[in-house]
Design brief:
The chain is mainly alpha-helical and about 475 residues long. About 55% of the residues are buried. It contains 20 helices and no strands. The longest helix has 30 residues.
């Protein structure tokens, strides 16, 4: 491998990069807001639309149908028209979906709006980290891409705050309407930002790519990085879906799909979508009290993600994954034990305490590991010509697993018992830990071109060790 990076040693990081990353990451706020807002809103939607438990699951999970559709179309969109225009398109669709939900007078229109919102989330969920990964310098890429996950947690926290603010009046329409604010900021902001230099090179726009690199690297000499990108492009055919079957892409695809499934099957979105419901299971029967408790979990989610952003380029991807998943397994086991032995009668206060502590530890563990690192890795490990499509496949799988978990949580809780559900998720967590141990590479400090070269040579993911700490 060539010495790190094609990025000139003399180049710094410009203010434009920070602005671009911060604006693009607002897409994470949209992602987080509309995955989190339903947790409080559903308590009131259920009453207004007279929903059965099954229809409650449908109302909650409908956004995921849209997210799957968005992920399917988003890969082609990102590779064809570019990363930046795709994010702009997602903002427009999000605003349209939000407006539809707010004016809905029945379940059918509500579901249409939620599906539209889901399409926008499905596109933004992987195009945003993809865009950030392609403009960030390699030494800071981990933290910058993980900023998207931090904004997701901020979006979730803001949604819990909106839920709490309007819970006294039961105004669920206002809960959803508030999400139009970050969507508008993202739409306007992305019009002012540069495109991805890697996408521009791949689409024969060398002059524009050179201009963008000079602006974001703060130097006129970007020949090293530009040559690396050109070399990567020359070695590959134009990307298409059949390229995903190439031997050099097979292992990265397995890693991405495996992490996509395991991130969801460990149950994280049962907490994001149903946290107030879980707290009500534990004895907090007031909607306002259960939403307030959920907001506390949201604060921890944000703080733990800040820790991950700081550590991911220092400690590396694998250590955060292994430590985070281990914490999730222990927390889920304790949560299950609380429901199995704590009781909701005279022991209700104890069960409430166990639930609060274990859910907080579980979310913190997820926020340090599987939360940010999954999205970072799938933005790093695929070759340029199919990066959008490969990320799309991983994202589709992630949203499909999310849909499965969300649609079955209340049903499983009724069939297996509340303890049994969380123990099942803990068992999946053990599988996830072993998967990371055996297959997930360390990409810390390497350029995207170096990572691509490793897999093109047919090497095992675990042989990719990452660059030493500078």
């Amino acid at each position: 491998m060539k010495a790190r990076g094609g990025e000139p040693k003399s180049s710094g990081i410009t203010r434009l990069v920070y602005i671009a990353v911060a604006v693009a990451a607002i897409g994470g706020i949209l992602f987080g807001y509309d995955t989190g807002v339903i947790s409080g809103a559903i308590l009131f939607i259920t009453g207004e639309f007279s929903l059965s438990p099954t229809l409650e699951e449908v109302a909650t999970s409908s956004v995921l149908v849209g997210a799957i559709l968005g992920a399917i179309s988003g890969g082609l969109l990102a590779d064809r028209i570019g990363r930046r225009p795709s994010i702009i398109a997602a903002s427009v669709v999000f605003l349209a979906g939000t407006g539809t939900v707010v004016v809905a007078t029945g379940l059918s229109v509500f579901l249409i709006g939620r599906v539209l919102i889901g399409v926008a989330i499905g596109v933004a969920s992987f195009v945003v980290p993809l865009y950030i990964s392609e403009i960030a310098p390699s030494a800071l890429r981990g933290g910058m891409v993980s900023l998207n996950q931090l904004f997701i947690t901020l979006g979730i926290l803001v949604s819990y705050g909106a839920d709490y603010l309007f819970s006294a009046s039961g105004n669920w329409r206002a809960m959803f309407a508030f999400g139009a604010v970050p969507a508008t900021i993202l739409l306007i902001g992305m019009f002012l930002l540069p495109g991805s230099p890697r996408w521009l090179v791949a689409h024969h726009q060398q002059d524009r790519a050179t201009s963008v690199l000079r602006k974001i690297r703060g130097t006129s000499d970007v020949s090293g990085e530009l040559d690396d990108i050109r070399r990567s492009v020359r070695m590959q055919e134009t990307g298409n879906w059949s390229n995903l079957l190439a031997p050099s892409i097979r292992m990265p695809l397995i890693v991405g799909i495996g992490l996509a499934v395991l991130q969801q099957l460990t149950g994280i979105n049962t907490v994001i979508y149903y946290a107030p419901t879980i707290f009500q299971f534990a004895g907090l029967h007031s909607a306002t009290a259960s939403i307030a408790a959920t907001a506390g979990v949201g604060v921890v989610n944000v703080l733990a993600t800040v820790v991950a952003v700081i550590l991911v380029d220092r400690a590396g991807r694998r250590p955060l994954l292994l430590a985070g998943i281990a914490g999730m397994v222990v927390s889920l086991a304790v949560l299950g034990a609380g429901f199995a032995f704590g009781g909701a009668g005279s022991g209700g206060s104890l069960l409430g305490l166990i639930t609060a502590v274990s859910l907080t530890a579980y979310v913190a563990s997820f926020a340090i590991g599987l939360g940010p690192v999954f999205w970072l890795l799938i933005a790093e490990i695929y070759p340029l010509n199919v990066r959008g499509r490969a990320m799309s496949v991983a994202t589709i799988t992630n949203w499909a697993a999310n849909f499965l978990i969300t649609l079955t949580f209340l049903t499983l809780a009724g069939v297996m018992g509340r303890a049994g559900v969380f123990w099942l998720y803990a068992l999946v967590g053990i599988v996830a830990w072993l998967f990371v141990l055996r297959l997930v590479p360390e990409t810390k400090g390497l350029t995207l071109e170096e990572i691509e070269e490793h897999f093109r040579a047919g090497r095992h993911p675990r042989e990719l060790k990452g660059a030493p700490k500078p």
